[in-house]
Amino acid sequence: MITEKMAKALNDQINAELYSAYLYLAMASWAGTQGMRGASNWFFIQAREEMTHVWRFYDYVSSQGHQVILDAIAKPPSEFKSLGHAFDETLAHEKMVTGLINDLVATARSENDNATAIFLHWYVTEQVEEEESVAEIIDQLKLAGDVGSGLLMVDKDLGARPFNMPADLATKG
Ligand code: FEO
Q1: pTM across the whole model
Q2: Which CATH architecture is the domain 4-73+80-164 placed in?
């Protein structure tokens, strides 16, 4: 069983993951209204992935006999200067989330909670992948250009991103 302190920290992270989904949904809609259908697809899928992060925490907190306490979700921004700006914001946000996950690992260790530390490994790896993939898109936008035909090319690539439901969550009702 996890401690109250650990349960509270995991509940706080559920709110942070919900905010992430909210932020990327806002970006998806903004990109769509700017004619960037590919980027809109990318952000929408990012939002769906964030919801799988929520479910994973939800399941874990529940499996440990604790109630999931939902808090208000902060209002995300709705205006971005350019696609490059939106992805810069995305990278900054993911770096912040990485910090939160590292804090959770530190809490698990201080609570002598090996089960939660092992559970959190998945998120540690996921954050490395998320930061890497966003940094790659920022590099592409810098190379191709954040306007005109370069932007069109990057937007086309972003439109090819599929959503893959993690196998361990696919069978959950
Ligand atoms: Fe759930 Fe993008 O971290």
Answers
A1: 0.96
A2: Up-down Bundle (1.20)
> Closest Cα to atom 2, ligand 1: which residue?
94
Query: Would the pLDDT of 119 be above 80?
Result: yes
User: Is pLDDT at 173 greater than 70 in this prediction?
Assistant: no
Give me the residue spans of the domains in the chain: 4-73+80-164
Query: What count of other Cβ atoms lies within 10 Å of the Cβ of residue 83?
Result: 26
155 in contact with ligand 1, CB cutoff 6 A: no
Cα 150 to Cα 1: distance, rounded to the nearest angstrom: 52
CB distance 130 to ligand 1 below 6 Å: yes
CA angle (107 as vertex; 106, 108 as ends), nearest 5: 90
Q: What is the pLDDT of residue 168?
A: 86
Q: How far is CA 11 from CA 67, 70, 138, in A?
A: 9, 7, 31
pLDDT of residue 100: 98
Q: What are the start-end ranges of the H helices in 81-147? A: 83-110, 114-144
Ligand 1 neighbour 94 (Cβ under 6 A): yes
- Taken as a whole, the chain contains a residue count of 173
